[in-house]
Design brief:
Length: 118
């Protein structure tokens, strides 16, 4: 099995993908992309109880995708957009690998078709 250098240098990649795998967490990130929000504001549209939303926020924070701050009893969350950079880099690596493979497959198919017509 080939292990990409990206995986070796960014162990948090698994944490990020895990965090992004859940639709509720993706929805929270979409909301936070607009502006920071209080935890209570994030929980309202989900229909989930506050402890459940807090667990989702904990996963997002552990992955580095959000940062939280507390002012008195009010906890506010903000997205950390640069945290997605390891994912973007890994996806770019994967795209390059597959484009190369598809290019070689296309060249092989073209050669095979040419040989067949000769």
């Amino acid at each position: 099995m080939i292990v990409s250098s990206m995986t070796k240098h960014h162990p948090e990649l698994s944490l990020i993908f895990h965090a992004l795998a859940d639709p509720t967490r993706r929805s929270i990130l979409t909301r936070l992309a607009e502006r920071p929000a209080r935890v209570t504001d994030l929980s309202e549209p989900t229909g989930l109880r506050l402890p459940t939303v807090m667990r989702h926020l904990s996963v997002l924070e552990e992955a580095g995708l959000i940062a939280t701050s507390k002012d008195g009893r009010v906890r506010t969350c903000a997205i950390v957009p640069e945290a997605l950079e390891p994912v973007r880099t890994w996806l770019d690596e994967q795209r390059a690998i597959w484009e190369s493979r598809l290019g070689r497959l296309d060249a092989f198919a073209m050669r095979a078709m040419k040989e067949r017509t000769e």
